């Protein structure tokens, strides 16, 4: 349930902050037009040439899943070390 609420809160935060980010110019067209990671069928410049978009999407998704799987265990180990250290000392 927390994941669903977190996703909805994140979507709301994006919805509210998108106009502010667009006003900074960070999302302006670069390199003469739209630029995307993979080629969406000739509609934009591709930053990664030679691979279909679905391959890049699956690869990036796999990388993010692995990172998400690794991070909680490392955070838990760090937290356990900090809690077992005497007061005033850091592990």
What does the model show?
- The chain has 91 residues and is mainly alpha-helical.
- The protein folds into two domains: 1-30; 33-91.
- 60% of the residues lie in helices and 4% in strands.
- The chain is built from two helices and two strands; from the N terminus they run αββα.
- Strands 1-2 form a two-stranded parallel ribbon.
- The relative contact order is 0.06.
In short:
With 91 residues, the protein is mainly alpha-helical.
Measured distance between first and last alpha carbons: 34 Å
Q: Which sheet architecture does the biggest sheet show?
A: 2 strands, parallel
Q: Any idea what the shape is? A: extended
Helices and strands, in N-to-C order? Answer: HEEH
Q: Give the spatial strand order of the biggest sheet.
A: 1-2
Strand % is under 5%
SS elements, strand count: 2
Task: Determine Rg (CA atoms, Å).
Answer: 20 Å
Helical run tally: 2
Q: What percent of the residues sit in helical stretches (DSSP H or I)?
A: 55-70%
Which secondary structure elements does this structure contain, and how are they paired or packed?
Elements: H1 2-24, E1 35-36, E2 45-46, H2 53-84
Parallel strand pairs: 1-2
Name a few traits of the molecule.
mainly alpha; two-stranded parallel sheet; 2 strands
């Amino acid at each position: 349930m927390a994941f669903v609420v977190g996703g909805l809160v994140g979507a709301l935060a994006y919805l509210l902050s998108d106009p502010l980010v667009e006003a900074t110019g960070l999302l302006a067209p670069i390199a003469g037009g739209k630029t995307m990671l993979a080629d969406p069928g000739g509609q934009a410049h591709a930053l990664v040439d030679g691979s279909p978009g679905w391959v890049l999407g699956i690869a990036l998704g796999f990388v993010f899943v692995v990172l998400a799987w690794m991070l909680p265990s490392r955070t838990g180990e760090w937290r356990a070390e900090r809690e077992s250290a005497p007061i005033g000392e850091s592990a």
